[in-house]
Amino acid sequence: MKWLGLWLIFSLPTAAANVILLDPGHGGEETGAIGKLDKSRRVYEKDLSLRLAGKIKHHLEKTHTVFLTRSVDRAVSLQERADIADKVKADLFVSVHFNSSTDIKAHGFETYYLDNNHDAAVRKVEKQENITLKGEDLVVNQILIDLTIQQTVQASRALALAVHGRLRSHLQPVGITNRGVKKGLFYVLALSKRPGLLLEAGFVSNMGELKTIQQEEFMERYALGVANGIRDYLKNKKGP
């Protein structure tokens, strides 16, 4: 973690009202979902999430202190991501992902916050994003989730609604389907122990949607929607 200390020293702005930690999903040997543009060209979720998180950071750092859990293609454990959140004293934690399904027609964007659910479709997403935890870790982190839900669920839900509301309007011109705000059990959110979201920005398993989400216009619109939604949430939280 030596790199983190040096990085924080040279990256910290002189003043900002809130600290936001953006978490590009996966990295290194953990590629995340894999999409195919054709027989020879593959697209990895880890690359898309890093690209999108960087754009969100660009828009947010004009008004807030913003950090990334990774800025290059490297593996970062769930615990390390949580440790970074503690290190930078993050007020919000936003994990950036892209979706995948065995149904190649599945499409659209959705926004998750940490809470219990009973939806079979949501459980498939949970399984995909929690894949690195097994055995005893699952039991320990289930307990942690229960505690974190009690402390953060209301704030996380308000944040999700603010961000998703902005995404609906920002993404309307590119024609991507709105799949709504959902609650799910994601260990990376529980470990962070603060209000947070897990974003699923589109399906890499859908070839048509994959072409859309790779485009600069989509990336910019999505990033700006997230940034504006976070600003809306923070403004409303402070009140008049």
List keywords for this structure.
240 residues, alpha/beta, Aminopeptidase, six-stranded mixed beta sheet, two-stranded antiparallel sheet, globular, disordered N terminus
Can you describe what's shown?
This protein has 240 residues and is α/β, with parallel strands linked by helices. The chain has one domain (25-238): 3-Layer(aba) Sandwich (Aminopeptidase). The protein has helices spanning 2-11, 45-60, 78-87, 120-129, 136-171, 187-192, 207-213, 216-238, and strands spanning 19-24, 34-36, 42-44, 65-68, 92-99, 109-114, 178-184, 196-203. The strands form two sheets. Strands 4-1-5-8-6-7 form a six-stranded mixed sheet, sandwiched between helices. A two-stranded antiparallel ribbon has the order 2-3. β2 and β3 (42-44) form a beta hairpin. α2 crosses α8 (216-238) and α5 crosses α8 (216-238). It is globular. Residues 1-16 have low confidence and may be disordered.
